[in-house]
Amino acid sequence: MAEFKLRLRRYDPESGEPPYWDKHTVELDPHRSVLDGILEAKDSQDGTIGIRCSCRQGICGSCGVRINGKPGLACNTHLDEALARGDGQEIVVEPMGNMPVIKDLIVDMDAVHWRKIQSVTPWLLPREPVPEREYLVAREAMVDVTQSMACIQCGACVSDCLAMEVDPLFTGPAALAKAYRFVGDPRDSEHYERLRYVAEDPHGMYTCTHCFKCVDACPKDVNPMGQIMRLRRIAGTDFEIEDRNNGFRHEHAFVKNIHRNGLLHEADLLPDSYGGKFDPRALPELLSSIPIVIKGVLRGKITPTKALLHPHKASKDVRAIFERIEGEPARYELNLYVTGTDDPPLQGAGDADSGAATEGAKR
Ligand code: SF4
Ligand code: SF4
Ligand code: FES
C-alpha cells in the first residue's frame, strides 16, 4: 500500500461558482487505477465528487478524463504510472477537453461527441440484394476495418483534437474513424455518398491538420488520423472527388511542392492549391494572404530571394522515394493494428485458411 495525492478539478456549472482544485489523499496498492483512487476518495471523503464509470476494465469508454494533462481512461491507468508521468508529487485529474463540463470530471458527450458520430450515419447501409442468410466478405476486407471497429467511444481523441479547438464544428477524429469503418466495409452500398459528405463538408475530413494528438490519446490504438488519411486517399484517388473546400487540390499541391523542392516551399503552396499563380481562383486567396505575407517579411520569415527563387531542389533520395511509390502497381495499405498470426488450426478441423498470417488490406 502507498499514499497517493489526488488533485481533482471540481466544477458545478449550476452552482454559479467558478471551478476550483480539490485535494484528497488515498491509500491504495500502486497498481490500482486512478479511477479506484477517485472512487476511494468519493466513498470515504467526499461523496459529491462527480465521475462517470461503468465497466472499470477499459471496455465501456465511460471514464475518460485528463490525467496530468493527457487524456485517457481513469480505469486503465495505474496510480504509480500516473504519478511517474506527472511531477512525482500528485496526480492531477481534470475533465476531458473540447466538451462542456456537466459536473467535475463528467463531460457532456451528447453535446459534442455523439452528435458528431450521428452525423456520419454510423450504421451499415446494406448493398442490394441483401442475401437471404449472410454476406460473404473477403477476410482481408474485414481485417482492414478491425482497427476502426476497436473504438470504445471514450472521447479521448476528441478531447485533445487541436483542429476541434479551433473549429468546434469539425467532425473530429472519432466520428471520421467511424466513417472509415463503413467506407472500408464491402457490404456497405454508400461509399461514394459517405466520402462526398465528409469531403464537401467545410468542417469535414480536410479540416484535420495531421497533429497526431488523437493517435497518442487513443487507448485502443484506433489511430483516428490514419483512418482520416485513408478516407482522403480513397475519396481523392479512387472516387476522384474534387471537393469545394479545395482539400483534394491542396494535398496534391503539397506532393508537387515536395517533389520539386524537397522541402516545403510555402510561396508555391497557396497558388498551386488553386491551380497555379495565374488561375482566377488563386487571386482572391493570394490577395487575402497579403497581410500574412507582410508580417512574414517584417519578421524575416519570408525573404524575396526565398519567395521568388527555389533555393532547395529535391535530392536524389527524395526523387527515388517518389519513383518507388509511383512505380507501385497498386496502393497497398497495411493495417498496423492487426499483426502476428491467428491461433493454430484445431486438430482435424481441416480449415485451409486457419493459421494464415493476418495482414493488411489492399486497395
Ligand atoms: S490528427 Fe487531425 S483529427 Fe487527429 S487530433 Fe490532430 S487535427 Fe484532430
Ligand atoms: S478513437 Fe480511440 S480515443 Fe477516440 S473515441 Fe475511439 S477509442 Fe476513444
Ligand atoms: S469504466 Fe469502462 S472504460 Fe473505464
CATH secondary-structure class of the largest domain: Mainly Alpha
Q: What is the CATH architecture descriptor of the largest domain?
A: Orthogonal Bundle
Helix amount, in percent?
Answer: 25-40%
Radius of gyration from CA coordinates: 25 Å
**Which ions and ligands are bound to the chains?**
iron/sulfur cluster, FE2/S2 (inorganic) cluster
Q: How much is the average pLDDT?
A: 88
Number of folding domains?
A: 3
What is the CATH T-level topology of the largest domain? Fumarate Reductase Iron-sulfur Protein, Chain B, domain 2
CATH superfamily annotation of the largest domain: Alpha-helical ferredoxin
| Largest sheet properties | 5 strands, mixed
Shape: globular
Q: Residue ranges: pLDDT <50 for 5 or more in a row? A: 349-362
Write up what this structure looks like.
The chain has 363 residues and is α+β, with helices and mostly antiparallel strands. It has three domains: 2-107, Ubiquitin-like (UB roll); 110-245 and 355-362, Alpha-helical ferredoxin (Fumarate Reductase Iron-sulfur Protein, Chain B, domain 2), CATH 1.10.1060; 247-327, no CATH class. It is built from 16 helices and nine strands. Helix 12 (266-273) crosses helix 13 (282-288). The chain is globular and about 70 Å long. The model is unreliable at 349-362 (pLDDT under 50). One iron/sulfur cluster binds next to helix 6, helix 9 and helix 10.
